[in-house]
């Protein structure tokens, strides 16, 4: 987590976030509706910004709202964004909506994960594809990336592991940049040690981040499921917990996979 409170307070934190986002002082000043001179004074500690300016700068840098609270604290202001537990009664409508989305996605697998990739909820489709996974990997907290790439997880059944594993690792690293987290960085390092080396040459059908998952069904069923993944966030959430949730859904890449999932998943 980047707060700057231990090494320069708000000025240091703003400089760190601006560097991380690769944004110049001039560009940030334009985004936030201020001047480069004013921003320079803030970053040098010569000017103390108001609460609204701190929020504007954080929004302009796309700082996650958990870290926006830290910036406000570093500037001497109270946090602006609440953080409730997911079982808080006030979040009941959100929980209901999420469960409806998971059920509505059936028979295709879908999960909801937190900022660290830990499982919050899953539907029966995900339960189906994870049959046979070591129970230890499915003991909370369940790291979904670890379940996918661990030798006692889904890795032995992933036909294109060489390619798809690095898609997952790159996604974890990208999330670590978006939401700075020591846990995510350690997870990425762990996953690197679990999978084959990154291929030196990309396959001719490589489509960048649109990497399909070729997964053999569990048990004695050797059918190959071809899946593509999608990612959904709460783009307008003002609660820290909700803003950090992600819906990761697996969709059939062909009609054969769609028919197989409809047959294999118990609704």
TrEMBL record:
Family annotation (InterPro entries): Cro/C1-type_HTH, Lambda_DNA-bd_dom_sf, MLTR_LBD
Highest taxon of source: Bacteria
SUPFAM superfamilies noted in UniProt: lambda repressor-like DNA-binding domains
Ranges where the HTH cro/C1-type domain occurs: 14-68
Family matches, as Pfam families: HTH_3, MLTR_LBD
Database matches in CDD domains: HTH_XRE
Molecular function via GO: DNA binding
Protein name per Swiss-Prot or TrEMBL: Transcriptional regulator, XRE family
């Amino acid at each position: 987590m980047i707060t700057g409170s231990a090494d320069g307070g708000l000025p240091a934190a703003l400089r760190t976030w601006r560097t991380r986002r690769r944004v110049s002082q001039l560009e940030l000043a334009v985004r936030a509706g201020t001047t480069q001179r004013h921003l320079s004074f803030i970053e040098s500690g010569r000017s103390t910004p108001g609460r609204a300016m701190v929020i504007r700068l954080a929004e302009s840098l796309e700082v996650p709202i958990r870290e926006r609270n830290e910036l406000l604290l570093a500037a001497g202001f109270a946090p602006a964004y609440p953080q409730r537990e997911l079982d808080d009664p006030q979040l009941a409508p959100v929980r209901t909506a999420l469960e409806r989305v998971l059920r509505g996605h059936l028979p295709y697998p879908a999960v909801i994960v937190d900022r660290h990739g830990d499982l919050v909820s899953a539907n029966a489709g995900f339960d189906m594809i994870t049959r046979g996974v070591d129970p230890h990997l499915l003991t909370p907290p369940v790291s979904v990336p670890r379940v996918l790439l661990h030798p006692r997880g889904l890795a032995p059944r992933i036909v294109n592991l060489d390619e798809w594993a690095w898609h997952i690792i790159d996604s974890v690293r990208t999330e670590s940049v978006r939401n700075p987290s020591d846990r995510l960085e350690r997870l990425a390092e762990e996953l690197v040690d679990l999978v084959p080396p990154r291929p030196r040459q990309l396959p001719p059908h490589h489509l960048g981040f649109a990497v399909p998952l070729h997964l053999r069904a569990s048990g004695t069923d050797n059918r190959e499921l071809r899946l593509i993944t999608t990612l959904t966030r709460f783009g307008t959430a003002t609660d820290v917990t909700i803003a950090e949730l992600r819906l990761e859904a697996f969709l059939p890449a062909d009609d054969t996979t769609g028919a197989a999932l409809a047959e294999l998943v118990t609704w």
